[in-house]
Amino acid sequence: MSKTLFDKVWDTHVVRKIEGGPDVLFIDRHLIHEVTSPVAFLGLKTRGIRVLYPERTFATADHNTPTINQHLPVEDPLSVKQLKALETNSKEYGISHWGLGHQKNGIVHVVGPEYGITQPGATIVCGDSHTSTHGAFGAIAFGIGTSEVEMVLSSQCIMQPKPKQMRINVNGKLGKGITPKDVALYIISQLTTSGATGYFVEYAGDVFKNMSMEGRMTVCNLSIEMGARGGMMAPDETTINYVKGREFSPKGEAWDKALAYYKTLKTDADAVFDKELTFDGSAIEPMITYGTNPGMGMGISQAIPDAAHTEGGAASYEKSLNYMGFAEGEPMIGKKVDFVFVGSCTNGRIEDFRAFTSLVKGKHKADNVTVWLVPGSHIVEAQIKEEGLLDILTEAGFTLRQPGCSACLAMNDDKIPSGKYAVSTSNRNFEGRQGPGSRTMLASPLVAAAAAITGVVTDPRTLIEELV
User: Residue 382, SS3?
Assistant: First the structure.
């Protein structure tokens, strides 16, 4: 029987099928951080249970970490408690721990791929929604809750119903200044935040085949924002070249065996999906959100749509626009910007900083804008310096912060003040997500760069034309 890529990975990891219930699925890699793991470890202690395979679990601190002066003690009491709990629990149970100050420390969904923990054909879970990032490698990766974290720690398995499957094809050629973030936000704007609920998505088509691994990670990262359980792409030469030689990647004969397996990981030609959609990549322009969920996005040159053309009821739509201080029919171009944030597990990789730097080179930061540039890991931080990007950024008036989740969410010191507007390369623009009363516009690193040097929402294509 013909199988999809998802079928092939899922079916080889089923330990037991429960009649009329979920599958018991073996988990190859378990990533943990300081926020969702403490209660799970407490459950183990209460029941007197050990971690079954500590070598398959990797811990890093990211959500609560400060992004300046990381050599100093953390001030927030709750953050201190959670960071210490991760360190203590990891040591007690023999788990690799990359805490604050460790060279491998960084955002969990950035360091996992960097060190080869993420591999094609694997099952990967983490107590974090955006675990779907790792699906870019042809892995089945999804977020889990605290009780499930405890389940995986104790048994290396999880009970999950097999989701329905959707394939999203994007063909054609992307225009100038169009990034993977724009592709993802465009798809979400078309499907809405609930359009893929109950599905696991496979991305296919020329646009994704031509993307770098970092771009693919951005797209898969945002799968959860349209309601999907996760997203994945078939591994190819781009994937293999990225994975080969990394610290935790297979070596020698093990690599040869793994490579043979990787090459089987593709959907059979006659496999059938529960739902299939196709989009034209040439129709995508730089995207920006105007409301309070990632589905409320539009091409940057367009006007804010009226309630009749959006998901949800008119009352909900009006509430969202009132929160943002926007109105139907208004253009987004020219809107005031107070903060710009480049970073997160969505856009905290080296390619994102290369894109940002390419646009601000030879220009200067707008005086009215506070800009937080936060690499996703120490590897990214080092690359920014080694490639000379930091010199260009410094000359343009920008400063670089230290790795962490930063302003993606209000769990550390990097919070957007109430009423202020932020162009953010992160993944969620919910009310208060970046701080109580904060107003977030999701966008790509290029749109963020354009805002950082003009002080308002600006179409980056106009600045790219100036460079040419």
Answer: helix
